[in-house]
Lactate utilization protein B
Amino acid sequence: MKAAPTHAAAAAEFLKDSERSHWHDETLWHVRSKRDVSAQKIPEWEQLRTLASQIKDHVLSNLDNLLLQFEKKAQANGIEVLWAKDAQEHNEHVLRILEENQVKQLVKSKSILTEECGLNHFLEDKGYDVVDTDLGERIIQFNKQVPSHIVMPAIHLKKKEIGDIFHEHLGTDAGADDPKYLTEAARQHLRQKFIQAHAAITGVNFGIAETGGFVVCTNEGNADMGTHLADIHIACMGIEKLIPRAADLGVYLRLLARSATGQSITNYTSHFHRPRKGKKMYLILVDNGRTKQLGREDFRNSLKCIRCGACMNTCPIYRRSSGFSYNSTVPGPIGSILSPGMDLNKHSTLPFASTLCGSCSDVCPVKINIHEQLYKWRQVITKEGPPQVSKRWAMRFGGQVMSKPRLFELMGKMARKSLSISPRGFVYNSFNAWGKHRELPEVPKETFKDWYRKNRNHDK
Ligand code: SF4
């Protein structure tokens, strides 16, 4: 099997189109700025973040009991609850439901969990036509791509490219890229799919242990369209998406949309409690590595994530290298913590795709210490991950030089000398990734230490 590219290699691919990378960076920074304005309008913003984090602490410490409470209440409401230990079991549950109910056509609203489980491919292989109904998801489904962002899946595409995709798949006018025109075309196309669908699959943003109900947030109302028209509703939920009480919901709803896009509330916050008369509702509770992450003391906080995407929008690495560079369902800083927990070898370069500036932790609405966990993963990977021979030798060498002042001085002298006489290609070549986009400052004639000895060291 072909090894997954390192983050740096995948990022270099995206960076080849420097205009797109620049524009991607600016677009996401704009979203981050909208988040700031929106957050600053709430005087109790920091208290909300603290509260959200504390409620999730409680959930993570009592997950077993809360899940059982949630299951019991949901079953009492007439929901069929299923448990899936991994992606395979999740997908098989969905397939069985579709087969038992003789479903031929289905629609799906945005669900990161079903992406994580590879549900679309699984069902397509069995002959099902899965229609993603979130506009961004539908665009990338047409384009045979995966989402590059968890909230804005097609953020890497420009208007003109979307116009071309719609022209090819929906027959819109060639060259037309007016968003209103394209959205209308998508609306007409999706209406038909909603009407024809026998089953609707949704994700779950919050499951409420106290009531057994759950909440799905969308900006387009596509989850509601799907579930209201289809006879079968299959909701797929990661087990960490629980909150204890309905009263806790307000805390998260106030944080979620503001952190994600700067909106004060998501357009559609839909509450589901029980199937409608004559219809069926299924809820699949998925582990897929979550209990393992819960058992890792240093990383369990990552399970507090409410998937707002704010850490991606602010991350200087994500903004320039796009979600594709992470080669993982959840990209960006939080993905770089979650993914190594699922497959350390495949994702061992992700925790290094960070400047550790801490901006991700600053914006996180549930106060996850993201940059600290990234740093922690680096330590784990250095000890347990795939060998990074060149890095290890470089560090060993650097450690030796820096721990011996005379050697350090000598190496500094040699480096200054050789830099001033070496041809440019000696420093700026394909082995020096740092030098691809940067210039070294002019080599100083003397070090600070030399200068200090001459000018300030009066004890001499
Ligand atoms: S880690 Fe925090 S900022 Fe990032 S997606 Fe999750 S909740 Fe949002």
The chain is about 50% helix and 10% strand. The longest strand covers residues 232-238. Residues 18-40 form the longest helix (23 residues).
